[in-house]
């Protein structure tokens, strides 16, 4: 190739590279019909460890839809369900670092990052489900979400995770006395251990995946969880006595990265908060449907349900737990239960 052709070739190559660079720079912008430039859409990632059709995922997707609507398409949220972005603790850590933008996690693992949120694990904290959601969706709930300040996390709203109750393989449980002497599997949580021991049972922390075999072999006598988990794990097959008394209802929390939050305008922050709060209704409806389906399925599968209408003696039995955590949670307990 002679020098003239080589020079022409290099010139054309330079033009092509320049055009490609300009194209890349404008990939996030577009021009609308009026000829005005649109700044494009910012896409955020939301971590969810439950399946696509699970109530929390349904809530996430409603939140994402509302954010896109309220910001006129300037923000889009992709929901990564099924633990694609990691388990709950890993997701929280990544949200802190800003490598994940948002996540839906339970309040229990969040206590590692914000101990005040642990008040929501206290037993029989609310007198009714109606009162619970009035508080969590109201002024006190928003105040509790503000306690994430300084953790590099931003609390947006609470989601329903149902009511946890006791079940066992031995006999029906109607009163706290009926739990005495039973070995009950609990989460690795100080509050959960204190509750079970206050009720006269023996608390046995155990990995979740080992509970079925533990119940089957008699290593433990019982466990505690909500109806959907009781059903999907098949625990009702080996522990058919379920006490419907909802001793704990630790909610889920929708969180955002502080790094992302600080890039939002005040108007967009308001839009995100409104979207999160408005999505709660859809999420709770999905949870109620799943709970009812699971309840019917375990009854059909042979489970015996014991309904407890008066919780006064159960609340009295766990008073030592409130005494134990009075210094840590006292102010919040007053605000949430008054």
From TrEMBL:
It holds the Pfam family DctP. This is Tripartite ATP-independent transporter solute receptor, DctP family. GO terms for cellular component: outer membrane-bounded periplasmic space. GO terms for biological process: transmembrane transport. It comes from Gracilibacillus orientalis. GO terms for molecular function: carbohydrate binding. Transmembrane segments: none annotated. Residues 26-53 are annotated as: Disordered. Residues 1-20 form the signal peptide. Keywords: Receptor, Signal. The keyword Signal applies. InterPro entries: DctP_fam (IPR018389), TRAP_DctP (IPR004682), TRAP_DctP_sf (IPR038404).
């Amino acid at each position: 190739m002679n020098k003239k052709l080589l020079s022409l070739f290099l010139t054309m190559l330079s033009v092509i590279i320049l055009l490609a660079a300009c194209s890349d720079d404008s990939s996030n912008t577009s021009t609308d019909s009026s000829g005005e430039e649109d700044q494009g859409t910012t896409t955020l990632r939301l971590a969810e460890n439950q399946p696509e059709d699970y109530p929390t995922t349904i809530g996430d997707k409603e939140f994402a839809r509302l954010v896109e609507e309220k910001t006129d398409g300037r923000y889009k949220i992709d929901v990564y369900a099924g633990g694609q972005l990691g388990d709950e603790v890993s997701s929280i850590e990544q949200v802190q670092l800003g490598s994940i933008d948002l996540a839906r996690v339970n309040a229990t693992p969040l206590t590692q990052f914000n101990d005040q949120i642990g008040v929501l694990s206290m037993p029989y904290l609310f007198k009714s489900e109606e009162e619970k959601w009035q508080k969590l969706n109201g002024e006190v709930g928003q105040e509790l979400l503000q306690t994430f300040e300084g953790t590099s996390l931003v609390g947006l709203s609470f989601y329903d995770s149902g009511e946890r109750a006791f079940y066992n393989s031995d006999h029906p449980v109607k009163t706290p006395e009926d739990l005495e002497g039973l070995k009950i599997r609990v989460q690795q949580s100080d509050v959960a251990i204190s509750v079970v021991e206050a009720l006269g049972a023996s608390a046995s922390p155990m990995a979740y995946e080992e509970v079925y075999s533990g119940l089957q072999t008699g290593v433990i006598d019982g466990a505690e969880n909500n109806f959907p988990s009781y059903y999907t794990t098949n625990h009702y097959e080996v522990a058919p006595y379920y006490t419907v008394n909802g001793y704990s209802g630790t909610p889920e929390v929708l969180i955002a990265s502080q790094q992302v939050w600080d890039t939002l305008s005040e108007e967009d922050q308001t839009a995100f908060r409104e979207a999160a709060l408005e999505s709660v209704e859809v999420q709770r409806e999905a949870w109620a449907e799943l709970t009812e389906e699971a309840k019917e399925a375990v009854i059909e599968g042979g489970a015996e349900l014991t309904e407890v209408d008066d919780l006064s003696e159960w609340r009295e039995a766990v008073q030592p737990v409130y005494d134990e955590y009075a210094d840590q949670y006292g102010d919040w307990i007053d605000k949430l239960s008054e």
